[in-house]
Amino acid sequence: MTLPGLDPTLERVLDLAGVLVFALSGAQLAAQKRFDIVGIAALAIVTALGGGITRDVLLGDTPPAAFRDQTYLIVPLIATVLVLGGHRALERISRPVLVFDALGLALFCVVGTAKALDHGLGAVPAALLGVITAVGGGVIRDTLARDVPAIFRPDSTLYAIPAALGATAVVVLWPQDALDAVTAAIVVAAVFGIRVLALRFRWRAPTARS
Amino acid sequence: MTLPGLDPTLERVLDLAGVLVFALSGAQLAAQKRFDIVGIAALAIVTALGGGITRDVLLGDTPPAAFRDQTYLIVPLIATVLVLGGHRALERISRPVLVFDALGLALFCVVGTAKALDHGLGAVPAALLGVITAVGGGVIRDTLARDVPAIFRPDSTLYAIPAALGATAVVVLWPQDALDAVTAAIVVAAVFGIRVLALRFRWRAPTARS
Amino acid sequence: MTLPGLDPTLERVLDLAGVLVFALSGAQLAAQKRFDIVGIAALAIVTALGGGITRDVLLGDTPPAAFRDQTYLIVPLIATVLVLGGHRALERISRPVLVFDALGLALFCVVGTAKALDHGLGAVPAALLGVITAVGGGVIRDTLARDVPAIFRPDSTLYAIPAALGATAVVVLWPQDALDAVTAAIVVAAVFGIRVLALRFRWRAPTARS
Q: InterPro entries annotated for this entry (chains A, B, C) (predicted)?
């Protein structure tokens, strides 16, 4: 899936940067849990690629994109090697990593929603698949690591909500043929901005009233 | 999938009622675990639709039915709003909800098995897909909420067993062209009845001998 | 998927032996957790067939092979009956079962990788699908039983690593048309041997450096 009007090389660089950062978050969690190399590689792969693979399986677009271009699998393997070499050192750069993670979140929800619309899905399922593309890998990561998914926890800062807002913007723009390089970049920037502000000001999502 | 001879409007009403009740059970569990709105919506969606989506992915019928008709996704979002508004109030109607849940169980196992047979599967895999349609969403719900799946626990009342009996009845009726509106209704009523009796008299499934 | 030059009857016997042993490991874990018959049957099925089903869904080869030949589902149901009848007695034969499990691991990683290559996948995704075929069922088993996947734990003996080595051997042999009955048997024997040695000498995989 390429976004309309976006330079393919730039999109690929951003895409792989998102995959790397997601992979690092999976590998780091595995190292913190003292998993061995198998657990580190497994969490790196599912965190980086699980969301997009789930989207593609649900769309019936198999084998998933992550299996057709080998680079997508090599990047999590690089993350595995980095974390094996020194996961404590990587923890010191956890703040910049969170910023790149926000970029991955923003990019993946826009690309995922656009791909689902391109496959003919309606607005609601397309937006859901966009959110799944962005956050699904993290949910699988946490479930395999036997944690409650981070995005469900009341003390987590907004993560799926900005992705849902971005996906909603895409499904609004799409039927008017208004999703182009400029509007897509604005949506990605807005999702990225909301996520970074949520991190900075500890914005949280509402819970159920008792 | 429409059941033979069943009024499509009635089937749709029953189907969506089942989806709503399953969604409420997911959203309620999320609220009890103090998940935020993201967790509540996620568990509502996977509980309501996870079984049918799993069945459709395994059959290769993608995108799943739940993504082709937007109503299926809107219903769990309504459940999310209801639970956000007051999940304690909903707990007071948990007994009637269990009765509707039994109806969803009965309907989904029959519809799921019939759809699998219609896709050419053999009796055993078709019955398994029928059971997965009925109970799969609850298993995903419990796993994401970090509980042992309720239907595996020795203190749970019969749930998958009535679904398996209903699925077995469908695979017996099907090759004789004997699955029509009347026999399907009888099977649904029988599964529903066994489940309600199991709730009432606390029937439990056997465990392994030590 | 049949391996080149391998007698189909022998391959089928080995394949079903692997399915039975994997099913027993799932059913035994369920019994140890005091799950009821539903949990025992569910873990028997997902452990035995989950890896191959995941591979087939990712390849778009649906319904999965495990649903096209009913024997694949009947074998885990037999394992369920055996464990219900006396899981303590089965524990006494846990050592020979581990040897058969190593054979299943070896066979499934070779067959799974070859099938993925046959579907046109590149070397890295094909090897990953081979490993998933061999170890994916166990990961699902442990996740449903609310355990950390055994293959991620630092105190586990090598399991996914021999499968990865076997898968790598297959992707090296394949493009040279060198995967035949003899080389496939050598790879299976090597994976089996490494796994048995890992069990005997408690070989473990590396973890991340602190």
A: Gly_transporter (IPR005115)
